# Entry
Amino acid sequence: MAMRDIKNKKGKVLVAMSGGIDSSIAALLLKQQGYDLVGITMKTWDYESSKVNGKETGCCSLDSINDARIVAVRLGFPHYVLDIREEFSDKIISNFVDEYLVGRTPNPCVLCNTYIKWDALLRRADMLDCEYIATGHYSKIRFENGRYVISKGKDTNKDQTYVLWGLEQAVLSRTIFPLSDYTKPEVREIAKNEGFEYLTKKHESYDICFIPDNDYRKFLVNRLPDLSEKAGEGNFIYQGRVVGKHKGHPFYTIGQRKGLEVALGYSVYVKEIVPDKNEIILADKEDLAQQIVRVRDANLIKYDVLPDNFQTLVKIRYKDAGQMATIQRIDDVYLEIIFHKPVYAVAPGQSAVFYEGDDLVGGGFIDK
# Structure
């Protein structure tokens, strides 16, 4: 596909609409700019199957779907609901459960963006003759030196580039982020001025969409009723000796301090999870430090090939401020990150994401 300047060409856009304020105002802005729109809401999860108490408030709820449709009707473009629950369950939910069973901490939002949402959007965009797809992410895309580059948007407090590192060039060439030059307060003001003030009052969720109560342990038990048999009570190990019993290794994450229920008189942290033995290795905080991290399945965005001994800022979790590091390729699968200062509680399964200033260089899954 030929590279195109998405900022200077109008066309037909498939807009991902969650029913929330961000995707709704993204659609409004595109409409005002003269694009021909088609709205689509993806139903990824069935709340009834998650056995979560309370009203559905996520992007897959009936209320959210109806809100997205109301916006589309008011702005005068068609709206469709896309049911991708089966593929979401097969690829995202199954991975989420499997990762905890083998002692890793999964990154479902990265996987979903990379392998489910953008893929589903592009396939439907082709079916509906849409040149582009658009979402309500607070990120930017530009074309530079023959590549599409993602960078942080104007509102750095809402930066979502961490979960976008898996998007490839062919995908980015057809992606528009209409909110790139807006802050969240500015988006709320637009909603008020354009007659969508009710959107400013909607609850904004920061949880994993299929775990709205943020209790992943309960989710695992509901998903695997025989979990207690597969990974029941095991030993906490500290300095080579048993210091207590845990409830099952999938219920713990690297770096965890709270909720261990181990009385040693001082704080200890989860350093390692040993699923084969159903053991949790505890350690003092300083023992969780490391400077070398191996990353697998990396995707590069800003560069086609990393420069030798490439120095960049690396974030090992979503809210991480990041640390400077040197990155070098080991082979076709792995990169090695050498941090200039120690980092703590590096969790296999999470993402290591690389930055140059506001630009997203790429990322990969932490292997160890």
